[in-house]
Amino acid sequence: MSTVSDCVQSRPIFHACLAVLSPFAYQSIAVLCLRHWTSANPWTDLDLFSGSFFVLTATLLIYEIPFRLKLFHSRERLREASGLSYDPDTVKWGSVLAVADISVFLDYGHWHLLPVLRVPGLQTTGLALYACATASIMWTDTWLARHFQGHSDDRQLMTAGPFGLVRHPRYAGLLIAKLGVSLVFASIFAWISLLASIILVRRRICLEEDHLKYIFGSSYDTYSKSTDRLFPGIY
Fold this sequence. Notes:
By secondary structure, the chain is mainly alpha-helical. It has one domain: Four Helix Bundle (Hemerythrin (Met), subunit A) (Up-down Bundle), CATH 1.20.120. Helix content is 71%, strand content 0%. The chain has helices spanning 4-32, 48-71, 75-82, 88-100, 102-111, 120-148, 169-185, 188-216, 218-226. Helix 6 (120-148) runs antiparallel to helix 7. The longest helix has 29 residues, at 4-32.
């Protein structure tokens, strides 16, 4: 017979499994948005570009599984890593934007609102950008996993690895990935989503830097003076 403690302990496991499986479920829905259900060739739009995108995304999601599992075993660690402790609104709007992004795949597979955007050369460039962004995010998440695996009182300001280049390498990777998606899927909705993401990231950075200054004090001010926010020499 299960006890109350057993139920409490099972919740983090359930939430961790949900966190791991949800992105894969989302990608499955995105793939299905490309399918032509009544066509003799239902997967016409699952081409080299869209197919490569899903392979790269699956690679990233698989790589992040251990990191996601660790985060969801600690409520404090999850709130800090996700930004819920200092910026819950961006998390909320980011989720809304992810749902809205389903329109990108529907446009690519069915609507074709601006077919002039589908240029193989631009799609190839977009795929290259997305591959670079994926590698950058994986590199950053490796450092973040080390940072959040210890107790909160023992964490130090990260200034090495990708954080030695810019202060917010993961956000930079996400924006480059969004640009890549906009070129690969040649959809007006993807470009709108990129613009919305820039606004959200800019807002998030301001709040996050205030939070980090509160935690690390003058050491973060010193670090800020020696690094750019997103792209070296640009911003």
